[in-house]
Amino acid sequence: MSSTRPSPNTATISLPASGCNVNQAELPDNALILPPTHQLQALLTIIRDEKTQRGDFVFTSDRIIRLLVEEGLNHLPVVPKTVRTPVGMDFDGVSFQGRICGVSIMRAGEAMEAGLRDCCRSVRIGKILIQRDEETALPKLFYAKLPEDIAERYVLLLDPMLATGGSCIKAIEVLMSHGVREDRILFLNLIASPEGINNVCNLFPKLRMITAWVDEGLDGHRYIVPGLGDFGDRYFL
Ligand code: PRP
Ligand code: URA
Prior knowledge:
A hairpin with a 5-residue loop joins β2 and β3. By secondary structure, this protein is an alpha/beta fold. The protein has a single domain (27-236), classed as Rossmann fold (3-Layer(aba) Sandwich), CATH 3.40.50.2020. It has seven helices and twelve strands.
């Protein structure tokens, strides 16, 4: 009996290898884009869709955040470590060197905390409350609560949206005023504008950032386009 159902292979469509607006080579050296796999493009398509409801938005954003955290951990330093396996053999591996903490830029950055905790159990997480002025888009710092020993830690700075870069720059200034070394900051981000990347990465050339996607630019309200709207509203409200 013949089946009318297409096999998975014949149903596969081909897309350009990179649908991303910007190539890795065009970015500052300290900015990295996740590989634009079909999976990542499909996940981003869901969260960008204005019809996506909050449950799917949260679930899908969390999956992208997990990809970012896993990639971020690849950029932390390791030292050699040898362990004895249950069959009596040695395995020459590595272990992470140095302690880390997360710092979320509230409110939207808080959405990335669970993804970090899923990978780094009981990780300390500091918070910096920065809000953009709705008229001017300039960032205003309200509050910072950070681990006391943050100056000795590698910091995973969390914010899903990088538009003008103003909020991220202010958060980095707060971290550095608490003694954090620029080269120990790893900024994890879902969607960035080219302006935001250039502003942050040129001002802080020793910091590293990882983003899932680089969009076209900003609109008149300094929102990322095509973007996904207000991440915090879509995730939390
Ligand atoms: C959003 C976003 C970033 C910032 C990006 O936060 O989460 O923090 O804007 O814009 P920028 O690069 O131009 O500074 P917002 O201030 O809207 O607050 P929210 O997290 O409460 O949504
Ligand atoms: N904050 C958001 O949530 N989205 C943008 O596009 C810009 C700032």
